[in-house]
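Students often ask why we bother encoding 3D structure as a string. The short answer is that it lets us treat folding as translation between two languages. Here is a chain of 395 residues written in the first language.
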Amino acid sequence: MAEQKAIADPNLNVVPPGKSPVEDVEAPKKRPPRNKYALACAILASMTSILLGYDIGVMSGAAIYIKKELHLNDVEVEVLVGIINLYSLLGSAVAGRTSDWVGRRYTMVIAGAIFFVGAILMGFATNYAFLMFGRFVAGIGVGYALMIAPVYTAEVSPASARGLLTSFPEVFINSGVLLGYVSNYAFSKLPANLGWRFMLGIGVIPSVLLAVGVLAMPESPRWLVMQGRLGDAKRVLQRTSDSSEEADLRLAEIKAAAGIPDTCNDEIVIVTRQKSHGEGVWRELLLHPTPAVRHVLIAAVGIHFFQQASGIDAVVLYSPRIFAVAAVAWAFFFTVLPETRGRTLEDMQVLFGSLTGWRSVARKLKMEAVEVGKSDGGKGHVQLATNGHADLKQI
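And here it is in the second language, the structure alphabet:
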């Protein structure tokens, strides 16, 4: 009967005797272990984004001392702190062509060297024009680093971790902002004419460390193929891919983009296709994009637009002023408490001492007012301290 049913229904899988049906089911493929070499290369390349974060973070505090020493007005300070976006845009535009000429790795070294010069110029600036020139040089270096870090990371990362690794530049930008704040705090105790110079000049240290560290990284496999160095590109792909099959697949895709036949496996070949250096890319991106490219373009531009439109850069650049205004706002908040009604700001400072713990202080003041009100006929006044400050323990 089983044989007749199998003949009648050819789609029926008949399990041979003595064999379990579970043996025919393929086990799910295990996720390959994360490539630590590619991870280290991506982290080191992304660390060049620290230069932008440090420049933004350190200028937020240094601008306070610069304004006092160089006698700048608000407009000049605004131009000083905000012009970095324009300068870095110029650097990013030039960095693309530079990376095609000398490679991704040496472009990152150039970025560190340019920022090194800019940090020195800003540290030794004697007037506003000199400081703006140093700001211009540092901004060019920041633009180089901003453009090349994600490009190199995307080209060296395996497919399984490319999304994660390409997010590292944004992480290190915020790390650079934090380092800038730490630098502001560390040198704020120095004399006013030296503190801001050390804040800006100390930026030479991360630029030198990053430039030296980048030299230990391999060159981008895509750039190597574009230069005809197939042997070097294959060796880099073998180290940065999750498997040899993925390395061969990535190499085949890059060779197709460069116009190299897939059957060509020589160590060094001559690349004659003009498109290998990016000619016509802008035309394909903006004038005649495919639906997939158009969706990616809209998403990328939209994300960056709303990121800037949110005003986060202004918050970071003017954070010291924002905190100062926030303190005034807390002082205004104290004036609406019933216990402070009719008192001057000096009286409030004597009462509260600081802006911390206002809830407990207000609660104690209210209880004291109730108790005093019972003894003085309901007037409910609180006696202020006469020695210049209030002893909160006695309130």
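Translate back mentally: The two ends are 98 Å apart (CA to CA). Keep this in mind for the problem set.
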